[in-house]
Design brief:
Blueprint: E1 5-9, H1 16-29, E2 37-41, H2 44-53, E3 60-63, H3 80-86, E4 90-93, H4 96-101, H5 106-118, E5 122-127, H6 131-135, H7 139-151, E6 162-166, H8 180-198, H9 200-205, E7 207-211, H10 219-223, E8 230-233, H11 240-251
Parallel strand pairs: 1-2, 1-8, 2-3, 3-4, 4-5, 5-6, 6-7, 7-8
Helix pairs in contact: 1-2, 1-11, 5-7, 7-8
The structure holds 1,3-dihydroxyacetonephosphate.
C-alpha cells in the first residue's frame, strides 16, 4: 500500500557536472526498478540541471531546505515556488544538521512545511533524537515534539505529500546505524502519533523513512521492518553503485 521511497541527500557535495554524472548513472541503472520511488536531493546550485536531466524518468528531485515566504527582502533564502520552478517536487525540512548548525527550530520547521505544501511540494520532515536524549530516555518525547512542530494540525488530505524521516542524530555519518528493532520501535511510535493527530487514514498513508548510516549491507534488514517505508541516505548516496543497491533492497 505504501510505495517505498528512497532519497539520496547529497548535502554539501557535488558540482553541477558531478551531479549530472551521478544522476545520469542512477537514471540508467534504475530504469528497470519497479515499485520503489527514488529521489535525489542535490545542492541548490544543481537542482535545475538535475531536474531537467531526469524529467523523462521516474526519478524525482528534492531540495535540502527552503524558506517560508514566497518573495521579499530575505537575502540568501529560496522560496518553495522557486524550487518548483527549478523542477523540484520535494523538499527536505528540519534535517538535524539544520537544527544543530543553522538554528532551525520546531517553529521554523512548521512554517517551512506549511509553505512548501502550500506551494505544491511534497515534504520530507526530519525528526530524531541525539545520543544524550536517547541515553536519558527522552527519545519518544523528542520525536513527538519534532512531529508536533512539523506536521501537527495539518490537513490529513495532504498525507500523500508528507513523508517523515526518522534520523537518530547519533547514527548520522557515524557508521553506527540503529538496529532494525530500534528503528522499528520508533517508527511504530511515530505512526501511532500520526494516527492520534491526523487520523488513521493519514497514518496509514504517510511514509516513514529511516536515515542514519544506511548502507548496501544493512538496508535490506531495515527496510524489511513493517513501519520502515524507505530511507533517507547521506554518504552512501554519493556513489551510484551503493545508492542503486539500497534502492533495490527497498524492493526485496
Ligand atoms: P548518512 O547516511 O551519511 O549517515 O546521513 C544520513 C542523513 O543525514 C540523511 O539525511
Amino acid at each position: 500500500m505504501r510505495t517505498p521511497f528512497v532519497v539520496g541527500n547529497w548535502k554539501l557535495h557535488k558540482t553541477i557536472a558531478e551531479s549530472l554524472a551521478l544522476v545520469t548513472e542512477l537514471k540508467n541503472q534504475l530504469a528497470s526498478l519497479r515499485d520503489v520511488a527514488v529521489g535525489v536531493a542535490p545542492p541548490f546550485t544543481a537542482l535545475h540541471a538535475v531536474a531537467r536531466r531526469v524529467e523523462d524518468s521516474p526519478l524525482v528531485v528534492a531540495a535540502q531546505d527552503c524558506y517560508w515566504e514566497e518573495k521579499g527582502a530575505f537575502t540568501g533564502e529560496v522560496a518553495p515556488g522557486m524550487l518548483r520552478d527549478a523542477g523540484c517536487a520535494w523538499v527536505i525540512i528540519g534535517h538535524s544538521e539544520r537544527r544543530q548548525l543553522f538554528g532551525e527550530t520546531d517553529e521554523t520547521v512548521g512554517k517551512k512545511v506549511r509553505a512548501a505544501l502550500g506551494a505544491g511540494l511534497g515534504v520530507i520532515a526530519c525528526v530524531g533524537e541525539t545520543l544524550a536524549q536517547r541515553d536519558d530516555g527522552s527519545t519518544f518525547a523528542v520525536v513527538e515534539r519534532h512531529l508536533a512542530g512539523a506536521v501537527g494540525g495539518l490537513d490529513p488530505a495532504l498525507a500523500e505529500r508528507v513523508v517523515i524521516a526518522y534520523e537518530p542524530v547519533w547514527a548520522i555519518g557515524t557508521g553506527r546505524t540503529a538496529t532494525p528493532a530500534q528503528a522499528q520501535e520508533v517508527h511504530a511510535h511515530i505512526r501511532a502519533w500520526l494516527g492520534r493527530s491526523l487520523g488513521a487514514a493519514a497514518a496509514a498513508a504517510i511514509r516513514i523513512q529511516y536515515g542514519g548510516s544506511v548502507k548496501p549491507d544493512n538496508a535490506a534488514q531495515l527496510l524489511r521492518e513493517p513501519d520502515i517505508d524507505g530511507a533517507l541516505v547521506g554518504g552512501a548516496s554519493l556513489a551510484a553503485a551503493d545508492f542503486v543497491a539500497i534502492c533495490r533492497a527497498a524492493r526485496a
